[in-house]
Amino acid sequence: MPSPPQQIASPPRETMSREASGASVSSAPVPEPERQQGQGNQGEEAGWTPLEKVADKVEELYSLRDTFFPRDPSEKSASLRACADAALGVLDSLPPGYSSTGTAGSVTDASRTEQPPTTQSEQRKSPEERVIYEFLMGKILDVFPDYCKEAEEHLSKAVKLNPSLVDAWLCLGNCIWKKGNLASARNCFLLALSKGTDKKILCQLSMLERSMAQSSEDQALLVEESINHAKEAVMLDIKDGNSWYNLGNAYLTSFFASGAWDKARLHHSIKAYQNAEKDETMKLNPDLYYNCATAYKYLENYESAIRGFEAAALKDPALRADIEVQKIINLLDKLENAMKVPSVTIGRLRPKRSASLVSSLNEVNFKLFHKKATISILSGGLNKTVAVVCKVVLWIRHDDDAPLYYLTCDLDQSYFILSVYGLQNEAIKEGDRVVLLEPYYKILDISWKEQRYKFKSIRVDFPEQIIINEKAPAAHHVARASIRAQHKP
């Protein structure tokens, strides 16, 4: 029997390597060489060593990458290229002995090749200076979204010259990750961790494990490892917003990986995102607001979801989060219009005809220890040992694959919105009699821009909660959620 088709979900958006001081997942900080005696203030370049000037340019470069979100992506690419060339220009001003070549060139100089040391001055320079040069060169070249072979070569030299340089292992792992070699990237992060526990490395490893889970048979195990490494990072610094953000992404991914029904994981992710936002630097991160809005959306907290998507759209127009806002508004309009159908339709029917719409519901029997109930006696939240018998009046089509929405009617001829997770749209048809076991009941009351939406709703999270025409859902109608990690440098 073929496996059930997958239900494509909305996984968290993530950034492969962003500075913690910028926005998203961190990459290695630039090493801070010792300053010369008698130098001025930190912000004054006059007293800085050449390497400190390069370090400052690298920080400026990565800050640009993590905080500049123009509407036209080509504008950002051009700015990054110019800033990278400026950083390489400063690196090029270093004395020859800082590198094996004595020149830095340009990010557009694809023909640059390494040459062995040729002068006594170069040969006498300390290995420590060469390590820092190779690391900075590699990090500058790796700032772009695409894989750069030359960046990998420089970073590989850095770790060979000094295997204990954790920052270089971290950057090398990020670089190799872009190449698609996830196993080798993971080895780099693990080697970095072997030198000592570090929150930035734990966050990167956690995110990489979520990416690896996409195509792995051990998906659940990798996602749980991702959560554990994210928790370790938080425990190292509970005030670090980036670590909390990473933990939120891990929980959000686990929600989809486990079948998109465990709302507790959504609540965990939102709590982590809220803690992340307490860190002022994280307020620059559009993905934080986008992912938190996604969690709210699947909790059907649409008002908070709209606010989150709007915040993300303002911070980074390229995310197109404004489209998500419009999709939710369109959905709410459709749900509201569906609730108007009964009053229009019933008004045209004779009382007997109206009653016949639900008369067959009295004949529904099920061999379970649940008490029949109507929506009018349900309590807010989960109603255990209760079953609501109802009839599907209308399938409400909308822009997303999940959940499925229906207008339904119970034994009291009370109409409500039913949202179903874990099933394909062929599973339930208009006119079907359905039994909802242990229903989750709430009144959706949403206000947005002078528009108010209010209606009763029951949520069904997984197929075992529903009986269709006295039968369990067919196996081929069960939809399994899938994770599809989205990484953007």
User: Can you identify the CATH superfamily of the largest domain?
Assistant: Tetratricopeptide repeat domain
Helical residue percent band? 40-55%
| Spatial extent as radius of gyration | 28 Å
End-to-end Cα distance, whole Å, is: 40 Å
Q: What low-confidence regions span 5 or more consecutive residues with pLDDT below 50? A: 1-9, 16-44, 99-105, 108-124, 346-350
Indicate how many domains the architecture comprises.
2
Total beta-strand segments: 13
Largest sheet: 9 strands, mixed
**Series of secondary-structure elements, N-terminal to C-terminal:** EEHHHHHHHHHHHHHHHEEEEEEEEEEE
Q: What CATH architecture label of the largest domain applies?
A: Alpha Horseshoe
Shape verdict: elongated
The CATH class label of the largest domain is Mainly Alpha
Share of β-strand residues: 5-15%
Q: What is the third-level CATH name, the topology of the largest domain? A: Serine Threonine Protein Phosphatase 5, Tetratricopeptide repeat
Secondary structural class:
alpha/beta
Count of discrete alpha- or pi-helical segments spanning 4 or more residues: 15
Could you tell me the mean pLDDT? 82
Biased composition (Low complexity): 19-29, 36-47
Biased composition (Polar residues): 99-121
Protein name: Tetratricopeptide repeat protein 5 OB fold domain-containing protein
TPR repeats: 286-319
Give an account of the 3D structure.
The chain is of the alpha/beta class. It has two domains: 6-328, Tetratricopeptide repeat domain (Serine Threonine Protein Phosphatase 5, Tetratricopeptide repeat); 357-482, OB fold (Dihydrolipoamide Acetyltransferase, E2P), CATH 2.40.50. It is 46% helix and 13% strand. The protein has 15 helices and 13 strands. The chain has helices at residues 50-67, 73-92, 120-124, 127-141, 149-161, 166-179, 182-194, 199-213, 219-236, 241-257, 263-277, 286-298, 302-315, 321-347, 351-359; strands at 6-8, 13-14, 371-373, 381-382, 386-396, 404-410, 415-420, 433-437, 440-448, 451-460, 466-468, 480-482, 486-487. The strands form three sheets. Strands 3, 4, 5, 6, 7, 8, 9, 10 and 11 form a nine-stranded mixed β-sheet that branches. The chain has a two-stranded parallel sheet with strand order 1-12. It has a two-stranded parallel ribbon with strand order 2-13. Strand 5 and strand 6 form a beta hairpin. Helix 8 (199-213) packs parallel to helix 10. It is elongated and about 90 Å long.
